[in-house]
Amino acid sequence: MTGVNGTPSNSARIAISDLVFVLGTLFAVKTVLLKFDALWTYAGPIALLASLGVATVCLRLNNEGWGDLGLRRPKSILVALLWTVGILVVTMALGIVIESVVASTITPPDGAASEIDQRYANRFADVPGNLPVYLYWLAISWIIGGFTEELLFRGMLISRFERVFSFAPFAVIIAVILQAVIFGQQHLYYQGIGGALATGAIAFVSGGFYLLLKRNLWPLTLSHGLANTIGLTLLYTGFQPPA
Questions:
Q1: Of 27, 50, 30, 51, residue with least CA distance to 40
Q2: Rounded alpha-carbon distances, angstroms, from residue 154 to 164, 192, 194
Q3: pLDDT (tens digit, 9 = 90+) per residue, 198-228?
Q4: Could you give the count of Cα atoms lying within 13 Å of 184 in the half-sphere of its Cβ?
């Protein structure tokens, strides 16, 4: 929505400000932490938590809360659980298909693929057969993946991008696309181009589900956490190697 003489409305200006603070925190914190080998593994989670804190402050300053963006009790627990299972199946299948297609069609520069694989392997090298490490990463996967990423990307970013582009006919579609692009980019550093495209596609589809669910985040948070749980469990049991 625009104001007089085509200037951005107050709602759009607030949304732009929120995006600057939230995304600025996400990119700045992660960029700094990735420079330190000892903090490399935790750069993503720390940056996401920092951004979540900033987003929470932004919401409170605007007299909003996470409930306004979808963290509220579903009208039907059973229906929400059925949606959770459906989203889980669709997003996991989509990720597998896209990564397989990318692996068979895109050849990364010499050494790039092996470096990404090594980063991924190092990150989860201690998970197989190690129950305390498995539980540690399981907790992080739910806190960061299940809740923080869904709150930030599907909740905060979609709502803010939609307000920024409220003058456009398909503002919500633009919002879903932009949050998906950023989500995929955030996974590039340790999952490579295949992982970035897969997670970006999953974020796009999740954005669509978010709208179908009338912006209720619970089925998305649960399906995201369960998908991470399945992946970590496969690593822990040895059915899937770290790289």
A1: 30
A2: 15, 22, 21
A3: 999 999 999 999 999 999 999 999 999 999 9
A4: 23
130 Rama class: left (phi>0) / alpha (psi -120 to 50) / beta: beta
> What is the distance between the alpha carbons of residues 5 and 114, in angstroms, rounded to a whole number?
54
- Whole-model pTM? 0.90
Residues 175, 158 contacting (CB under 8 angstroms): yes
Q: Are 176 and 158 within 8 A, CB to CB?
A: yes
Model confidence pLDDT, tens digit, residues 36-93: 988 888 999 999 999 999 999 999 999 999 999 999 999 999 999 999 999 999 999 9
CB count within 10 Å of CB 163 equals 21
